[in-house]
Every structure is written in C-alpha cells, then in structure tokens.
Amino acid sequence: MVPKRPEAPTTLDPDLQRRTAADIFNFAWTLLEKPDRSAREDDLMIHAAHAQRFHWEWVGDPVNHARGEWQLARVYAVLGRAEPALHHARRSLELCEANGIGDFDLAYAYEAMARAYGVTGDGDEAARFEELARRAAEEIADADDREQVLADLATLP
Questions:
Q1: Which band of pLDDT confidence, cut at 50, 70 and 90, is reported for residue 112?
Q2: Using CB atoms within 10 A of its CB, is residue 149 exposed (0-12), middle (13-18) or buried (19+)?
Q3: C-alpha 15: how far from its chain's center?
Q4: Positive or negative: CA dihedral 44, 20, 148, 111
C-alpha cells in the first residue's frame, strides 16, 4: 500500500509544472551527456534530477515517477556514488513492479540496478541485473527503444 502523499507544496498550474518537470529532466540529461562537466555542473545535475522527480510527484503518473527515479540512479552512478545510485535504482524497479510498468521502462529499471551494482563493486548482482535487462529488452515492442536500451547496456562497467 502506497502511503497517502501530502498536499502539494506548490500552486503551480499543473500544465506548467509538467512542462517544468520535463524541462528539468532534459536539463539534467544534457549535463549527464556532457563529457567535461565541472564540479559545479555535477552539483547542478544532482539538483536538477531531484527537482524533476519532485515535480513529477505532483503531476506525473507512476511511469514518470519510475523514469525520474531512473534518472536519479543514473546521475549518482555516473558520479560514482553507489548508495544513492542503488537507492534510486531500487525505487525505479519497485515503481515498475508495483504499477505493472514493463517494456522500455522495466528494462531501464534493470539497467539502473546493474549500473548501480557495478558502482558498488558487486559484479555478481551487476551481471544478474544486466541479464534481466537484456531479457526485458528483447520484449520491447519498439525497435528503436530496444536498440537504445541495448546501447546503454553496452556502456555498463
């Protein structure tokens, strides 16, 4: 059972909040892809990833929540921060499982677990979740989405 969430702490128009969440997600993604981030940009990337997830909490569906947690896991994994990477990867997977979310998002939840375990140094768990991600990728309906997941899996440590 999911605990009741408190009343929204913002009075933003829901459409504006959705656009804001998406824009902040994309900003964090831009920083994730930047090869020569500064320490300040690393901090901004963390802040942006948390901000997008916060906004999705109020205006998103479970799939937005799962994707937001996935992004947080990726950010922390890229920065070599094992504990928060694993925490957010687990949350992404839990949200997928609890809400019957499959396809692309489930494959990426497994990818996040594999990447996070790679950062922890637990090669056995990393390999187990990579295999789950590969199996889930085989079930992705859209060929481009499937290829994207497989390309990301190829970058696992």
A1: very high
A2: buried
A3: 22
A4: positive
